[in-house]
Amino acid sequence: MNDVNGAGIPTPDKSDDDFWAAFSDLVEPPWSEPSQDDAFTMDERVLDAVRALAERISTRLLAYRAAGKEPDPVLMASPDVQLAMLRAVYEAKLSVDRLAESAATVAGRSGANYAQLGAAWGGIKRQSARVKWPHAVVRKSSAESIPLHYAGGTAVVHHDPDADAWWYAATGADQREGESQPVHGTYAEAIAGATEFLLAHALPEEHPPV
After folding, report:
1. Residue 65 in contact with residue 71, Cβ under 8 Å?
2. Nearest alpha-carbon partner for 190 in 143, 156, 151
3. Is 111 in contact with 188 (CB distance < 8 Å)?
């Protein structure tokens, strides 16, 4: 994927008439390749998150805190604390899988195809992307109601044939419910509204990073 600087890409505000048309028009290329510095920064942030979890679940470190002692940093190298680190890394992997499924679902149901999802996921083949996220890309006929799971909540996007418009019903992670009127001219506009609602009602640990 070639590096891009954003030149020539429209940047309308949400209040502009052409915002939703620009929103639905998939930008190519969608991203620039991360640099080595980007990769190292990601490693550091993942390590920080994993280490913080390991420190909370390590039996040895918990024993020190229960005794009113601050664990010496060298204890991080002990075999049992490293096993707690490994367990924390596994939890990080599960978090990555959940985030990947959410991103693939929103991208796929907003217009991306399996070839594009596979390219974003390290260049896997279209068929492999379909196997990995079988429900990410769906056919959107006017008779279908399409479910979406995101940010710990759920939504269903419907088409109203009488109004010839799309609407959504959603329940956020905080159990707040919301329903739009059938005013969205396109499926992409309705799913964007549903996603915005789910993000607004996500629990802190469910909120995807920006």
Report:
1. yes
2. 156
3. yes
